Amino acid sequence: MMKKIYVVGMVILAMAIALTGCGGEKKAEKPAEVKKVLKVGLNPDFAPFEFVDKDGKITGFDVDLIQAIGKQMGMEVNIQNMSFDGLVPALKTGNLDVAISGMTITEERKKSISFSDPYYQSGLVVLVNKDNSSITGINDLKGKKIAAQIGSTGSMAAHKVEGAKVTDLNNTPETYLELKKGSVDGVVNDLPAVQYFLKTDEGKNFKIVGNVLEAENLGIGINPSNKELVTNINKALAELKKNGEYDKLYEKWFGSKPVSK
Length: 261
Ligand code: GLN
What we know:
By secondary structure, this protein is α/β, with parallel strands linked by helices. It contains 9 helices and 14 strands. The chain is globular and about 70 Å long. The structure holds glutamine. The site of glutamine has 13 residues, from loops.
């Protein structure tokens, strides 16, 4: 009897040692996987690229795209809500790894930050109140009042209009508000953002006039001292374009297949 208890005891002890050993070995072999964090900045006032939904969640095409890119690269995406004109400075100082915020690839910005390959073809348009019949395009805004989002290419184009008085506002929704109030005659902004706005209830009071002013490519802004990240993001983006994921996201947010990628 004593012998039996002894044997059982030994077996339990042996099992306990074996188990502990196993646990220890496992840990040594495979350390808990800590994913690298990708610090992403955006200004969520630019639907459908990035905006805050009714549940207070930041969502949009750019958000889905950067999540998919992060997944491709095996990185965890950490999104920071920032002002649009704060994005380039934050990339320059390395406070951000990337900025995805409907940002146009411009020569000026390329002097201080890096960009990914283009991920969307955009362009600038003029928006006016629906009942306005005197402004039919950018040339009719000469000497008039224009609102634009500060630091945007729309603002840059507005400042080039002869004699125009430009009000630079913090975000796109504020420019629409000024237009509605009648304190400005027109707004210059990106076509896809304006098109999306026109389909909302608020947007019913406005219309686009004239042609697309300038064709622009949107790109992901990247910390200029991280060249490896440019390569990795471009690789991930190319893969998503190839495997159909990009098309899926494009259709989800723009309602049609991309014309060109
Ligand atoms: N595409 C424009 C730019 O880069 C506007 C972007 C924005 O307002 N989020 O300036």
